[in-house]
Prior knowledge:
The chain is an alpha+beta fold. The protein is built from 13 helices and 24 strands. The chain has a six-stranded antiparallel barrel. Keywords: Coiled coil. It holds the Pfam family BSH_CzcB.
Amino acid sequence: MQLGDSGTQAIAAWQQQVQGVQGWLARHCEQAPRPEGAGVTQGVVLWRQGEQWQPVALWPGQADGAALLSLSEEVRDAGRGLVSQLGEDSLGIGYPVRDLASDEAEGAQPGKGALLGAVALRVMLPEALRGRDSAVQTALLPLMQRLEDGVATLERDVLQRSYRSGRQLQDRLSQHLSLLAAVLAEPRFASAAMQLVSRLASHFEAERVSLGWRRGSRTRVEQISHSAQFNRKMNRIRATETAMDEALDQRISAVWPAPDGPGWEHRVVRAQAALGGMTGLGAVVSLPLLDGAEPLGAVTLERDMPFDAEEVAALESLLALCARALEEKRRNDRPLPLKMAVATSEQLGRLFGPGFLGYKLTGLVLAGLLAFSWLATGEERIAADAILESREQRVMTAPFRGYIDAALVRPGDRVEAGQPLADMETRDLLLERLQWQSELAKFERQEQEMRARGDRAGMNVLAAQRDQAQARLALVDSRLERATLLAPFAGVVVSGDLTQRLGGAVEQGEELFRVSPLDDFRLELEVPERRIDDVRVGQRGELVLAAMTGERLPFVIERLTPQTRSSDGSTRFVVEASLVRDAESIDGAARRELRPGLQGVARIETGENKLIVIWTRELVDWLRLTLWRWWG
């Protein structure tokens, strides 16, 4: 099985680290001092690789390190230096190695870093020190100090390697982002491709860099570094396209000559070698441009020096960033008709080709819905705002000039026929009535006297004056009879609140009340201008009032008026309708007290039509007006 480039780099970094640890252990053991004859005779290093721990260094190579390996594991578990008796003539000393660059790692102590390894050394004791603990401690002290210093040196080397690796990674990322930014900054595919090949040629010191794009089953060269124009029929161009096809068919980079390391010997590079032999250059590499598993194109680099694995890995990561950006620019550069044709072809391929089950189910549902709407019919209705108005309103005016004495009803009160609504002040009228009655009595006495004298002329004049007084008395009696305002019929008081005008003066004919009947209403419908042509007298519909959303009141159109109203920037025509006196609907609503001024939404039935016509009527009307506005 072939390893990926990241896996190969990780193995190389691990091998380099192991070699450094082995060299450090050999130097440390060989140069160790021998205080009072005690010397280091054996050493072992236990090192962490991911989640596993492995012995990576043993000195000398032919020694048995089982005892020291156990000591190193104890040092790893304890996380501190240890001294252990390995035999009668030897002691073991161990010390942990920490990764100072990873203080935040799991298991790391604050300020000390994560545990990276453990070192264990065997110290042989001469016979003079055996059994003398104080002498042994004195002899081991310089060895432990030197081990601590050596471990510090090893930790510093690890930190330096980590720092160098981080800097290399940052430099590589910076180069990648710079190249990607340069490609993205170009507005067209051709300029972006030229930017890519020119920068690759400069960065990798290539003699020539070619970019090819997949067309069907073959790749065609689209751009060559340092060349504005080229002849596609040249043998070199054809050989370059063949090398690109070779890399795209394998979906991996094809490098000639192959770099050192595992995983390169099984790659086919015959076309790369043929291109190198034709041009006389010593190295050729072709890298595929992939969008997931879909091949987009390839890039071929030619130069004298061979490409190593690290350069190939850098090229692969760079092109992985730029492939999608180049494809987007290529698609955007296509003419609009071609874009539409390609998009249609893609959608048809998804609809009729393999896969995309959800897409197919959606298409079937839409086709079924379209067929249903084309064949099925329904009742077409026009929605209109409606307001309930009284068909008749009676205005109650002041019968004479006077003052209001009492207000017996207020707006909203239901009244019966003949029910008093208000009383006018009658005190002045009563006095005036007494005045004219006394005048009549005086005229009667005078008439008797003139009759006794036989004064016929005086009697005629007196008769005229008496008739005048009787007329004035009749007028006063009439006003007294009308001083109490009575309801003309059973209904509801629509307007007129006199409770705030008690004792106030009113003029004759001034409006005091408006009374409407309870059982005679008309509807005013505001029909949108675009649908007024479909409304006819005699059409029926249903009304739902905002105050009675559970009731549907039938109505019939009575009259189309020329009156218009503007609302929210649109014009609406006023249509008059009357409620149908249906026992089930109207009587039920009447029990809930229909009132003038109630508003709601009415739906006028205009007849049956196809559902697709009903649903698309507004869109079709808008398209017709737009086409007429622009093309006539």
